[in-house]
């Protein structure tokens, strides 16, 4: 409507003034509906053409959208394991710091597993002490076996000399020879027993202790999981948890944590797909939001998503018909404030209206630019001023429209 009024002021209105005051024609006599159309047909046609051209230039070179939101992501409050709630430390809409406890689950099983792991460690340490005592006893057994072997060897050597003089029976010498071999076997046995004890003390028991310590650490981790803490600083929402509730990771979350910085500092806008050739990072933009009425926020385009979300395809067990994706998607554009702190007062999730403005300053500064192109680019930039005026009018009317639509 504003574009039509502006074009009428440049075409139809001057034509009417000329015929009314220059030619002296009167309304209702010479100026009738038919004569208006017949005499002002060129002005009306030029008005329509100019209006269409102006609208095209405005919304192509200076795109506008009402699909602007301060998008934010929430964090689902979930325990890492299912369990029954025994204590709750926070309430609804309460601000929490990162790492603050939120609630605690029943930890009787985890404490029992931790105590079992601790007892296993104590058992291994006690077994190590007993093995060291057995190792000391093995040293005594080795000395005893070596002494018995030496006695048997001495007696065997003495009886062997007496056998040459037939002073002793051969059967006695054979018995002593068998005794020496038996003593050697006893010495080997006690030496092997000592090696077994040393291997047990140096290898087996440390491995068992390390395994028990790992089990203790795992049990401690499982015990720590029963105390659910806030991952980030923020505000707890939809948190109606009470002692006795049973939580499940897949079926029943405890609530939602809205991060303190969520949705701050960035607006996400959805422009028409036709603007994909125009909107580029670095473009200047403006926005007005319901959450901050009567205010124009200067912005800059920081990023343009290079895909259209409407074309997203996920494999399923059914073939996708393209007709099901007939609804056109929008071009996702990320906007950040031109000056720090401009979006601090905007509540996350606010709905806004945004305009982006094409800049032709570099092209106009080129000395080799043609006259027609120079004139066209000047007109494009001038049209941007018209669009900026429209946005300011919308900023004034947006709160009123919101109140009317909400029934106030």
UniProtKB/TrEMBL annotation:
<keyword id="KW-0812">Transmembrane</keyword>
<keyword id="KW-1133">Transmembrane helix</keyword>
<keyword id="KW-0472">Membrane</keyword>
<feature type="transmembrane region" description="Helical">
    <location>
        <begin position="40"/>
        <end position="61"/>
    </location>
</feature>
<feature type="coiled-coil region">
    <location>
        <begin position="114"/>
        <end position="155"/>
    </location>
</feature>
<dbReference type="InterPro" id="IPR050393">
    <property type="entry name" value="MFP_Efflux_Pump"/>
</dbReference>
<protein>
    <submittedName>
        <fullName>Multidrug resistance efflux pump</fullName>
    </submittedName>
</protein>
<keyword id="KW-0175">Coiled coil</keyword>
């Amino acid at each position: 409507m504003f574009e039509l009024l502006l074009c009428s002021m440049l075409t139809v209105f001057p034509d009417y003034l000329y015929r009314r005051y220059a030619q002296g024609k009167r309304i209702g006599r010479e100026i009738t509906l038919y004569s208006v159309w017949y005499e002002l047909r060129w002005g009306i046609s030029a008005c329509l053409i100019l209006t269409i051209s102006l609208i095209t230039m405005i919304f192509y070179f200076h795109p506008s959208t009402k699909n602007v939101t301060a998008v934010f992501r929430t964090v689902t409050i979930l325990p890492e394991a299912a369990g029954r709630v025994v204590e709750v430390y926070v309430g609804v809409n309460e601000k929490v710091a990162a790492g603050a406890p939120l609630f605690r689950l029943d930890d009787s099983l985890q404490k029992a597993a931790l105590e079992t792991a601790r007892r296993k460690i104590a058992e291994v340490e006690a077994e190590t002490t007993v093995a060291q005592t057995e190792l000391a006893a093995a040293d005594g057994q080795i000395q005893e076996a070596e002494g018995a072997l030496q006695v048997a060897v001495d007696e065997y050597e003495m009886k062997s000399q007496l056998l040459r003089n037939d002073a002793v029976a051969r059967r006695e010498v054979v018995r002593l020879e068998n005794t020496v071999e038996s003593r050697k076997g006893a010495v080997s046995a006690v030496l092997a027993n000592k090696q077994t004890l040393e291997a047990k003390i140096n290898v087996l028991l440390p491995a068992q202790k390390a395994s028990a310590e790992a089990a203790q650490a795992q049990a401690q981790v499982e015990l720590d999981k029963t105390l659910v803490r806030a991952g980030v600083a923020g505000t707890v929402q939809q948190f109606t948890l009470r002692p006795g509730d049973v939580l499940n990771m897949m079926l029943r979350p405890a609530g939602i944590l809205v991060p303190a910085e969520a949705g701050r500092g960035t607006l996400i806008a959805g422009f028409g797909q036709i603007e994909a050739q125009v909107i580029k990072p670095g473009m200047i933009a403006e926005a007005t939001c319901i959450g901050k009425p009567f205010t124009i926020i200067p912005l800059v385009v920081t990023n343009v998503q290079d895909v259209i979300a409407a074309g997203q395809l996920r494999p399923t067990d059914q073939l996708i018909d393209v007709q099901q994706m007939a609804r056109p998607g929008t071009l996702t554009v990320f906007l950040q404030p031109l000056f720090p702190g401009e979006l601090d007062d905007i509540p996350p999730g606010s709905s806004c209206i945004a305009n982006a403005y094409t800049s032709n300053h570099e092209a106009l500064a080129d000395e080799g630019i043609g006259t027609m192109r120079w004139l066209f680019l000047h007109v494009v930039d001038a049209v941007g001023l018209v669009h900026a005026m429209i946005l300011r009018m919308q900023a004034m009317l947006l709160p009123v429209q919101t109140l009317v639509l909400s029934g106030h």
